C-alpha cells in the first residue's frame, strides 16, 4: 500500500488519480482549494486538506500536515494548476504572476517542503503534472507553455539532484483529456484580445473551445498509467499521456534535430580554434 499526497483532487486528472489510488487500497492525502471532492474512499483512506497552492506558506504547511497525518508519504503529485490562453503582447503582469504562483512556485514550494521528509525516509517519488504545451507548444498557449516548460526543467534537474538520495522524479505531460480543463474552472483567457492575432491566437483559442468535451484522452486511463509508472522498477523521467501528446512531441523533436543539423557548422564554429 502506498501513501499519496496529491494537489487538486476536486476535479480532472487529480480526481481520477485519487480515485484510482483509493481503489487500490492506498492512502490519499489530497488538497482542494474549497469544497468537498466527490470521492468515495472505498478500500483506501482519504484525508482532504483545504489549501490555496498559490499561498506559499499554506502550501508548505499542508505538506507538514500531510507528513504528520501519515508518518511517511510515498508519492508527491503536483497536479493543481490551470491554463491561461492569449497573446503574449496582451498579457498582463498580474495574469502572468498568478499563473506562475499556482503552476510553478506552488509545486516548487511543495517539493522543497517535502524533500527533508523524503530524504529521511530514503525513498519517495515526486510526480509533476506538466503538459504537452510545455514540450511542444502552439499558439495561444505562450503563457501556459512557459509555466509548464519551467516545471519540466525543474523536474529534469531535480531528478539528477535527488537520484543519488534514492528519490525518483517523473514529469507527466498529458495531451487533451476529457476533463473540465477547457472550462472556466481550469482555463482562463487573457482579457485583452487583438484582431492582429486572430489568425494565430484567435484560431487556436477557437479550436480549444471546439475541443471541449470531445478530447480523446480518458482521465481514468491516464490515472492508471501514472499508477503503473510509479509502480515501475525504473519509472520514466518523462511520461507522455495521449496519442496527441505523442504526435506533438515527436514532431517537435524531429524539427529540433533537423534544425540542429542544419545549423551544426555555425554552432561548432563558435569555439576557440583548437
From TrEMBL:
InterPro entries: KR_dom (IPR057326), NAD(P)-bd_dom_sf (IPR036291), Sc_DH/Rdtase_CS (IPR020904), SDR_fam (IPR002347), SDR_oxidoreductase (IPR051911). It comes from the Bacteria. PROSITE patterns: ADH_SHORT. Residues 2-175 form the Ketoreductase domain. Keywords: Oxidoreductase. Pfam families: adh_short. Belongs to the short-chain dehydrogenases/reductases (SDR) family. This is NAD(P)-dependent dehydrogenase (Short-subunit alcohol dehydrogenase family).
Amino acid at each position: 500500500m502506498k501513501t499519496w499526497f496529491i494537489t487538486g483532487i476536486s476535479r480532472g486528472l487529480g480526481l481520477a488519480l485519487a480515485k484510482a489510488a483509493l481503489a487500490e487500497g492506498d492512502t490519499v492525502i489530497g488538497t482542494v482549494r474549497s469544497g468537498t471532492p466527490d470521492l468515495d474512499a472505498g478500500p483506501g483512506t482519504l484525508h482532504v486538506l483545504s489549501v490555496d497552492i498559490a499561498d506559499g506558506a499554506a502550501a508548505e504547511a499542508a505538506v507538514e500536515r500531510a507528513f504528520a497525518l501519515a508518518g511517511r508519504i510515498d508519492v508527491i503529485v503536483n497536479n493543481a494548476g490551470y491554463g491561461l490562453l492569449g497573446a503574449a503582447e496582451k498579457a498582463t503582469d498580474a495574469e502572468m504572476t498568478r499563473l506562475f504562483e499556482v503552476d510553478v512556485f506552488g509545486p516548487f514550494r511543495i517539493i522543497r517542503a517535502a524533500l527533508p521528509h523524503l530524504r529521511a525516509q530514503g525513498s519517495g517519488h515526486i510526480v509533476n503534472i506538466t503538459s504537452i504545451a510545455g514540450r511542444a507548444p502552439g499558439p495561444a498557449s505562450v503563457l501556459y507553455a512557459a509555466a509548464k516548460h519551467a516545471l519540466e526543467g525543474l523536474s529534469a534537474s531535480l531528478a539528477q539532484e535527488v537520484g543519488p538520495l534514492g528519490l525518483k522524479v517523473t514529469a507527466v505531460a498529458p495531451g487533451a483529456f476529457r476533463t473540465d480543463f477547457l472550462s472556466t474552472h481550469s482555463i482562463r483567457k487573457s482579457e485583452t484580445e487583438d484582431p492582429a492575432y486572430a489568425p494565430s491566437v484567435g484560431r487556436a483559442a477557437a479550436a480549444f473551445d471546439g475541443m471541449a468535451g470531445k478530447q480523446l484522452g480518458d482521465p481514468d486511463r491516464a490515472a492508471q498509467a501514472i499508477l503503473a509508472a510509479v509502480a515501475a522498477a525504473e519509472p520514466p523521467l518523462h511520461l507522455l499521456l495521449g496519442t496527441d501528446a505523442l504526435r506533438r512531441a515527436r514532431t517537435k523533436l524531429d524539427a529540433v534535430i533537423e534544425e540542429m543539423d542544419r545549423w551544426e557548422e555555425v554552432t561548432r564554429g563558435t569555439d576557440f580554434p583548437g
